[in-house]
Design brief:
The structure is a homodimer. By secondary structure, chain A is an alpha/beta fold. Chain A has helices at residues 6-13, 17-25, 32-45, 51-58, 72-76, 80-92, 107-121, 136-143, 167-179, 195-208, 221-232, 246-258, 292-307; strands at residues 63-68, 98-103, 124-127, 147-150, 160-163, 185-189, 214-216, 240-243, 268-270, 287-289, 314-316, 321-323. In chain A, α1 crosses α2. Chain A is elongated. At the A-B interface, α4, α5, α6, β2 and α7 of A face α4, α5, α6, β2 and α7 of B. Chain A binds a DNA duplex through α2 and α4.
Chain lengths: 334, 334
DNA sequence: TACACTCATCAAACCGGTTCACTGACGAAC
DNA sequence: GTTCGTCAGTGAACCGGTTTGATGAGTGTA
């Protein structure tokens, strides 16, 4: 089954390839008459233009890419990612743009991946898991690949950016905990070179006025457990812990319990990112839902605009909502 | 910055385009001497071949696709999908194959997506969320697109297939529950036109010998709650419920509790698919881990073989492990 | 010295679209 | 009746690779 090409359609309609192309794209005026003939031929032959030929001719891949340098395990346990992708897709679908996903093991592979992308595979990229002073930003700038940064990026940059306000929910949670009588409030952050971890940790430090009870985790359950153990072993242990994601919070909760502490009576716990199961735990986990789908939609729209040549701009998606649940309920003794 | 092409490399190395191509692909013998010159030129100019040009010339997109017709919400709450994708990627990365992800709203868009894919966008596809008598199977067969089915598919098919044995873990759980003294064991399934839901439900029915306590859910928390409520309202209510995924199980657990039932004392509960948080719930949820990453790897390998023209074959990934946890612990009263 | 036979390289065609410079026909203006 | 402008459509070049048939140099043989 040799596939039908635009030449077949042209022959069928009794016109040239150029006419077929113009009739369909509308780039040149074509009489309604021949336009109808072309459409009929397209229909009859069930023709679909070859994406690779079109990409070569137009220098447009009609695809955007997400390159992830994460460990497969981390991807699997991340509640942000799938929802974000779903949001991205909902926008891309409108323009028949495909989403290219690439997971790479190391920086070398990542550079190669981006290089290949720029050469006919994708028209733009979304940058996730931003680090402070991320090497990819100047690299992609160099490559000239339209890019949207997801997360805050403080260096000056030519790229569009989707940010959220992570400081406000942190302050809200701390305010509530204080109102409930907590004075020793700790924070277990994600890796501090991730911009979002850092933003949360800095909001915590600023509000509390000290880093004494700040510990750096890495978003895994194991680190949630270890850091929690450290904090609870302190002579003057915290009565509340704010975690930078739900996985660590739940691991912490389960450790605290194993030490005979009741949550929230002896220890208040809050997560971040609101995993879909968190509301169903017992105690239900206080967390911050951040509508990853909305951020995905915003990022996709910005990227589309960038590719079409619009000025880069920063969009703040105001989506963080604190859900206070049982795990931070005021203890009866307070 | 007009990108460098193979012609630039050829000029730099003092040879023709053809020689560059052969030197790199090894399709024709090229002297070590010129090969070295070519490589030096490639290095110097930092040349990366254009994927679109290559795709057009070779009729190979070097990409495979996953088209999802799911609701974005469902994607966001699915623990299977990200891990599966991660597994797929780990295999594709070896051959610089990209993964194309497309989320479509309806069947029309899905057909169009597949048509476009076959025309220069992708070399093959992975089919998820298989239904009994799925229209996509004959459709893709017609299109001639190499495809791997993920999940059982009972109709005769020319496609490769990655299956799992879902019946055994269901039987194991039921056996354990019976050993713990349960006699009224219910099952809340996923939509029964999904092959994996159906396989689980059929294993349940066969083992129990009756459909009296079988209810059809749809994998959402809401359905888990509703169906649980129905079962618990029965005059002779079940003392154990087997859910077809963890989300429904947790929703059911939380409903049962709201009705004053203790888990596992008054009601034993088991999930399926082992969400990463399930082990951390309290009570920790008995579930079946199914290693989605392993299935992703198997599917990607089969697809790669298919694209290269291998005979289609079915691979059974034996990955289902039942994790018995507190939610099905034998009640003290038993 | 002529012949066959490799081996390395070249030149051109090809993949399937898009785009641009050009042509021919027709109507309006002078 | 000639000239100009517009409009619809044509033909060829082009995008950047890969592939194939032809070419020429170099070696071995008769």
């Amino acid at each position: 089954m040799s596939r039908t090409t635009i030449a077949d359609v042209a022959r069928e309609a009794g016109v040239t390839k150029a006419t077929v192309s113009h009739a369909l794209s509308g780039n040149r005026p074509i009489s309604d008459d021949t336009k109808a003939k072309v459409l009929a031929a397209v229909e009859k032959l069930n023709w679909v233009p070859s994406q690779s030929a079109r990409a070569l001719a137009t220098q447009r891949a009609n695809a955007v890419a997400v390159v992830l340098a994460r460990d497969p395990d981390v991807i699997a346990n991340d509640s942000f990612f799938p929802a974000f992708i779903a949001g991205v897709e909902s926008v891309l679908a409108e323009t028949e743009t495909a989403l290219l996903l690439q997971v790479v093991p190391d920086r070398d592979a990542e550079e190669r991946a981006y290089r290949t992308l720029t050469h006919g595979r994708a028209d733009g990229a979304l940058l996730l898991d931003l680090r402070t002073d991320d090497w990819r930003v100047p690299f992609l700038d160099d490559l000239g690949l339209p890019t949207v940064l997801v997360g805050a990026y403080d260096e000056p940059t030519e790229f569009s950016c989707v940010r959220t306000d992570d400081a406000t929910p942190v302050r809200e949670i701390i305010a509530q905990l204080r109102a409930d009588g907590h004075e020793r409030i700790a924070h277990i952050s994600g890796p501090l070179d991730y911009v979002h971890s850092k933003a949360r940790a800095e909001a915590y430090s600023a509000e509390i006025g000290s880093d004494e009870l700040l510990r750096e985790g890495d978003f895994t359950a194991a680190s949630g457990r270890t850091r929690t153990a450290e904090l609870l072993a302190l002579p003057d242990r915290p009565t509340a812990i704010l975690y930078s994601n739900d996985t660590m919070a739940i691991a912490g909760l389960s450790y605290a319990r194993s030490q005979g502490l009741a949550v929230p009576r002896d220890l208040a716990i809050s997560g971040f990112d609101d995993d879909h199961l968190s509301a169903h735990l017992s105690p239900a986990l206080t967390s911050v839902s951040s509508d990853p789908a909305a951020r995905g939609r915003a990022a996709a729209r910005l990227l589309r605009a960038d590719i079409l040549g619009a000025q880069p701009r920063t969009e703040i998606v105001d989506c963080n909502i604190v859900h206070f649940r049982e795990s931070t309920a005021p203890s009866a003794s307070a």
